[in-house]
TrEMBL record:
This is Oxidoreductase, FAD/FMN-binding. Keywords: Flavoprotein, Oxidoreductase. It is an enzyme of class 1 (oxidoreductase). Its EC number is 1.6.99.1. InterPro entries: Aldolase_TIM (IPR013785), NADH_flavin_oxidoreductase (IPR051799), OxRdtase_FMN_N (IPR001155). Gene3D superfamilies: Aldolase class I. Pfam families: Oxidored_FMN. It comes from Bifidobacterium saguini DSM 23967. The keyword Glycoprotein does not apply.
Length: 432
């Protein structure tokens, strides 16, 4: 590691959000599924230790993994669900640990819709009936179409979870409206074939998101940060050809920009740009650093496109591996927060190393492999997620991350933790 001191780097500068809250620097730890919840979907002491380590590592904002608003509707094994105040004491300890060292700790609230694996949910719901498309469809049960009463109940649930999060001491919330989960399903004309006020036109398809946002804002008040994670489009950049504008018939970039402008008018404090769904995943390989070098920083073309169209802060997530790329993105003005996830599972104090120590190196993520090609092919995405979950579990146990751990050990770890549910596809949130 280089120890050459630099002038004050842009990532060290504070940022004041539209609600008036200031975060201390531009490091935005993006969501990863920690898979640390108890069997009854409650937070644990492991969450406290993991988030304390990240808070002491120097990030400005920590975004939690998915916290579901309904314990019967989980997106991944090991999800937390917050429906009432039964877990308030542990939520308070988790929030306090994540807020140490002047850090903001925001809870990501979500509902999976039809993207709830059949191994953990045989009765998913969705804007419309219809299974998940593509090779992953066999892992999900046929959902039932939501009634108006159910839609309004879910809106209430989002607001209630946000209220409890604030009461517990979390300093903000992020509404997950990306990655093919329920809100994204409402936005997508491929998934949403409703003919009522929640379907059809973009304005109608976005109504659910806007209703959720307004309900959350009413629950937490005007001076509490609310971020929204939103797809730039439903097409993954890994399979874009000639910058095609979204999955055919899916939520596209023009629609995303319109939604962002509407959210800005409603008072959103930050938009976290992402992309892709289960049937069109963002990442399709497990090549680690080699893939990072091919791809670079994700979604930069879209970020440049919206530069100047929005005044709300943007978090650009994915592919940031060194301080030079981070500084370039901030100086170019295409993002105001540096979204970073997987490197923090290997280098929990990366923000401190860059800001305090002037580290100029690069975090090279390993290629995760079992050494058995058929296994790698069959479980590539699951393998990578499980490998990074294993690293987070090590941090939560007070151990150091170990990049030398092999893929086979990660796969066995996942099976031990989650049983058969471990083999169902999960979003590659860790690939950021």
């Amino acid at each position: 590691m280089a120890n050459d001191k630099k002038a004050v780097t842009p990532v060290a500068e504070p940022l004041t959000l539209p609600c008036g809250v200031t975060v201390k620097n531009r490091f935005y730890k993006s969501a990863m599924n920690e898979a640390l919840a108890s069997h009854d979907c409650a937070p644990t002491e492991a969450h406290v230790r993991l988030y304390r380590a990240w808070a002491q590592g120097g990030a400005g904002v920590l975004i939690t993994g998915n916290v579901m608003v309904d314990h019967t509707q989980l997106g991944e094994p090991g999800n937390i669900a917050v429906e009432d105040e039964r877990d308030l004491p542990m939520l308070r300890r988790w929030a306090a640990a994540g807020a140490e060292n002047g850090t903001h700790c925001w809870i990501q609230i979500n509902h999976p819709g039809r993207q709830s694996p059949i191994t953990i949910n045989q009765h998913p719901v969705a804007p419309s009936a219809g299974k998940v498309d593509g090779e992953y469809g066999k892992f999900f049960a046929e959902p039932t179409e939501l009634t108006h009463e159910q839609i309004h109940d879910i809106i209430r649930r989002f607001a209630n979870t946000a209220r409890i999060a604030k009461k517990a001491g979390f300093t903000g919330v992020e509404i997950h409206a990306a990655h093919g989960y329920l809100i994204n399903q409402f936005l997508s004309p491929l998934d949403n074939r409703r003919t009522d006020e929640y379907g059809g036109s973009l304005e109608n398809r976005a109504r659910f998101l806007f209703d959720v946002f307004d309900a959350v804002r009413a629950a937490v008040g005007p001076d509490f940060p609310i971020a929204v994670k939103l797809n730039s489009s439903d097409v993954p950049i890994a399979i874009k050809v000639n910058e095609q504008n979204g999955a055919p018939g899916g939520f596209n970039e023009e629609e995303s920009i319109w939604v962002m402008k509407q959210l800005e008018a409603r008072g959103v404090d930050l938009i976290d740009i992402s992309g892709g769904t289960y049937s069109k995943p963002v990442i399709q390989t497990n090549d680690g650093a080699a893939e990072d070098r091919r791809r670079g920083v994700y979604f930069t073309d879209f970020a440049r496109r919206i530069k100047g169209e929005l005044s709300v802060p943007i978090a650009l997530t994915g592919g940031f591996r060194n301080a030079d790329d981070m500084e370039h993105a901030l100086n170019e003005g295409i993002t105001q927060m540096i979204g970073i996830a997987r490197p923090l599972a290997l280098v929990p104090d990366l923000p401190n190393r860059i800001i305090r120590d002037g580290w100029c190196g690069s975090v090279d993520l390993p290629r995760v492999s079992t050494g058995v090609k058929p296994l790698d092919k069959a479980f590539g995405g699951i393998l990578v997620i499980s490998w990074f979950e294993l690293q987070m579990h090590r941090i939560a146990r007070g151990k150091s991350p170990n990049p030398r751990i092999g893929g086979m050990r990660a796969l066995l770890f996942a099976l031990k933790q989650h049983g058969p549910a471990a083999l169902a596809p999960r979003r590659r949130k860790g690939h950021q």
